[in-house]
Amino acid sequence: MLDKTQTQFSHVKPGDTKFVGGGLRDFFLYRDLGIAQATNGKVIAHLVKANLPPEEGTGWHRHEADFQIVIMMKGWARFMYEDKETLVEAGDVVHQRPGIRHYLFDYSPDMEYLEIVSPADFKSIDVEPAAQIPKPTPWPAQRTED
User: Fold this and answer.
1) Total structural domains within the chain
2) pTM value?
């Protein structure tokens, strides 16, 4: 039976939390969905959206995490997973196995994805490159806000 003392019910509506900077990457904005608090740090779920054009990308890294999925909600992003380029488009779901070396190097101005990771305080560790990174797609000079 589920131990209800370890987690709490959570219901976050769109207006309850805002997209803010200060997350893992300064070129993205993050919207907390209240899951880390509800699970006492077992899981984090947040929406991530593009804030600035992809200049350097995330760099090669891996996560110290037991579980991670990315669900692309809007737009697209291009990743390198080890030595394989992967285009992730709206509606796609990616399970990143623990420790996989990856690099998010390109994304559309409207990119937004849901990321779910366990544990909530996962670490991002820089690693040696696994392959050469293609150039990102330039953004239009002016971008319109949603």
Assistant:
1) 1
2) 0.89
- Nearest partner of 43 among 24, 66, 59, 75, judged by Cα: 66
Which amino acid is residue 33, in one-letter code? Answer: L
Q: Give the CATH number of the domain where residue 92 resides.
A: 2.60.120.10
Would 75 be classed as within a structural domain?
Answer: yes
Nearest to 89 by CA among 101, 103, 78, 104: 78
Residues forming beta bridges with residue 30, ordered by sequence position: 20, 48
β-strand partners of 83: none
Residue 2 lies in a domain: no
Q: Is residue 143 part of a domain?
A: no
Q: How far apart are the C-alpha atoms of 133 and 146, rounded to whole Å?
A: 30
Q: Which of 30, 28, 115 is nearest to 73 (CA)?
A: 115
Q: What is the tens place of the pLDDT at every residue in 55-77? A: 889 999 999 999 999 999 999 99
Strand, helix or coil for residue 32: strand
Classified as helix, coil or strand, 102 is strand
